[in-house]
Amino acid sequence: MDSTYKKIFSGSFIVVQLIVDKLKAIGISPVVKDETESGRLAGFMASIPGFQDLYVSEDEVETARPVVESVTNELEADTN
């Protein structure tokens, strides 16, 4: 991964997709890294299927973090 990108979240495919949609809505184009799919294509099995890492450009981190917090807080509130 290019060093100008920073990981801002790791989690399930569903949560990552929610965050990606909200980031795209504000003009941020995140990069999703899926070890499961990479491993499958290489002939290996990842330890946690559906687990993804979400990266954004270094200069977008400050804008993206509140979006991640908003989505994760929303989901926590829904489970309580």
What's a concise summary of this model?
The protein is of the alpha+beta class. The protein has helices at 13-25, 35-42, 61-79, and strands spanning 5-12, 31-34, 51-57.
Care to describe what's here?
The protein has 80 residues and is of the alpha+beta class. It has one domain (5-79). It has helices spanning 13-25, 35-42, 61-79, and strands spanning 5-12, 31-34, 51-57. It has a three-stranded antiparallel β-sheet. The longest helix has 19 residues, at 61-79. It is globular and about 35 Å long. The chain starts with a strand and ends with a helix.
Features:
80 residues, alpha+beta, globular
What general outline do the C-alpha atoms trace? globular
Oligomer designation: single chain
Intertermini distance: 36 Å
User: pLDDT average, as an integer?
Assistant: 86
Q: Secondary-structure element sequence?
A: EHEHEH
User: How many domains would you count in the coordinates?
Assistant: 1
**What fraction strand?**
15-25%
Contiguous helical run count: 3
Show unreliable segments. none
Rg to the nearest angstrom?
13 Å
Helix/strand structural class: alpha+beta
Helix/strand layout:
Elements: E1 5-12, H1 13-25, E2 31-34, H2 35-42, E3 51-57, H3 61-79
Antiparallel strand pairs: 1-3, 2-3
InterPro entries: DUF2007 (IPR018551)
Protein name: DUF2007 domain-containing protein
Organism: Mangrovimonas spongiae
